Amino acid sequence: MAVATFPHMNEYSPAFRMILEELGHEVIMPLRPSKRTLTLGSSFGPEFACIPLKILLGTYLEAIEKGANLIVTSGGVGPCRAGLYASMHKEILRSLGHDIDMVVFEPIRHKPLDLLKSVHRLNVARLMPWQLFDLLYRAWQMISYLDQLEHLLHWTRPRELKPGTADAIYRAGVDSLCKERSLKGITSRGRQAVAEMKAIPIDKDADPLKIGIVGEIYVVIEPAANLDIERILGELGVEVHRSIFLTGWTKENVVKEGHRVKAGMVARPYLGEMVGGHGQESIGHTILYAREGLDGVVQLAPFTCIPEIVAKSILPAVSRDFDIPVISFFLDEQTGEAGFRTRLEAFVDLLARRRSRKRQEKQPA
Ligand code: SF4
Question: Do domains 3-125 and 209-365 have the same CATH topology?
């Protein structure tokens, strides 16, 4: 019997587990990436590889230790290494003596037939089409509530009257939502968790700094890969606007609409080509955030990530033209938390002084 696992990505694992279990697989839940995960991935992955490849490799090795023999993951398209990840992981794992199987979901707009073949391969419970639809719809609802709760967490953290309340209520809400499997249960727990987040006592007069986060999808979404930047910024009194959530990313890969396409279009005067990954969107989102009046932007990128290196070389011009400060972090296994936090604190300090200077300049003499 296949024992399946998948990459760890923020809080989404219970939704992926529900899908795989109901398709008829035993599931090994991926561990939240830790120092050990990264050490494993860095030891056996190529030195020049970007950090998501190493974290995923470490995650797979940890799951294989627990008995996983099937990896379900996503592929990629475009002129960067994302499309090679799955085959590289497979080769590395096989060279280490692990005879694993892999099912790779390629972007549906590029290879729609491959998606059907992958679903058919995974559907060992032989669910009928309407049962598959029901399963995917329930998972989608769970993920949508998870994203909604995280949006609210980002908004509430810098406004809460008692520090830590939003995180505690968010955690409880996520845990109770993820225990559900029926549509009725998911909807009712999701609504309840959203209502509880909205009921957190806040400082109604608070006017927190607003910072957008742009960059490569894995380091933007996975807290273990970005040293929990959203929590650090929230604790510094900043409202975080994250450019990528799983629901938004999925919609944009199924239908060619949405914020990502808009970001790609506004980036064109600066970067007319799709350079792979999210390089073009990093520029576009920075422009959109400037237009929305945000105070600053943080670019997050894996060390050696080509699309984000291209974006970084263009962002100073965008920052100048749209009058928005941008700071870039290139992350790898050597990135230290203390230095990361110090640079963030200095950036937030700079933004606060900049905002107060601008407001003083606007006041009548
Ligand atoms: S987008 Fe960057 S991190 Fe992701 S595979 Fe491409 S080069 Fe690596």
Answer: yes
